[in-house]
Amino acid sequence: MTGKEVITRAVHFQKVPRTPVAFIDGGAWLVYQKGISYGELFAMEDWGAELICEYYDRFQTDIVWPAPACYNLAIRALGGDTQGRCPEVLEPLIKSINDVERFDRVKISERLLEDTGIQAMLCQTEEIVKIFGKERCIAINYIGPFTLASQLIGITDFMMELYSDEIAVWPLLDFSVRVCYEFFHIFLQAGADTIFIGDPSSSGDLISPEMFGKYSLPSIRKLTGLIGDEAAIKLLHICGNTQERIKPLRGCGIDGFSLDSVDIKTAMMLANKDFAIFGNMGTVSVMNEKTPEEIYDICLKLAEEGGLQGGYVMMPGCDLPPITPEENIDAMIHAAHANVG
Known about the structure:
Elements: H1 3-11, H2 27-34, H3 38-42, H4 49-58, E1 63-64, H5 72-77, E2 81-83, E3 88-91, H6 108-114, H7 116-132, E4 137-143, H8 145-153, H9 155-164, H10 169-189, E5 194-198, H11 209-227, E6 233-237, H12 243-249, E7 256-258, H13 264-271, E8 276-281, H14 292-306, E9 312-316, H15 326-338
Parallel strand pairs: 1-4, 4-5, 5-6, 6-7, 7-8, 8-9
Antiparallel strand pairs: 2-3
Helix pairs in contact: 4-7, 6-10, 8-9, 8-10, 10-11, 11-12, 12-13, 14-15
């Protein structure tokens, strides 16, 4: 059974022959280990496809992540004030929520496709799909609408708008939903089959459960509704303690929820088979600081807790720290592969 089949069965709550296993993106780890920048990766003749394929030949995970996260490329494509090949945003793209009206939503896709960095990531994705597309899930990682809205106008101004005028914020959120959709759409057309929505601004560390239900959750639901069957698998990640987010997410259109600090059995119970649970090894406390032997034991126990009935995928709680030792990553993967039915 291929890795893609194992993940697909897991998110559809079908029995799996072993614990599915993956990590999130891993681009920061790759460029650090190779001593290069994201810009240098995308500037390679093959847009870095060979290096990424080498990486995934080395680590036998069930999800491959082309186009390592350069979230600000979309903001640059829309006219944001940025700097560098993997750009740093210098100023918020939107000065006030009323500025949203000056963007032609029909042309969002055109502007994304005109950006040279996004062009390189699309070409890289197409090359990687040729190699791994039949064997493993091909996942594209991009921020969620709530987080994008906070980045477009600035996190402080965004939070002030949420508290001061709930009506005014919706045009910005709707615009963010559209940008997220168009970003995922062009990569799905390039051959990706899985989307990963990273929405850290929806964390319980930043907003209350009430605000999550009023603003973030409807935006996630709109995005998954737009994507529909274009993506075979739709995943969501929110940082922090997300236990209170799990029940409200039921019915929002995701196939899996990635978490970093919630007990797996509790999370699976709260999800109630509406979506699979991905996670939850600590990226620093476990993956970076434990010995390979300790990681193996921790991950094997976690695999046994998640079970083989479907509904669980082993994964670190967030992106791997760049200095994570290779043998620690191997330990996680070997533990998942050792838990067989």
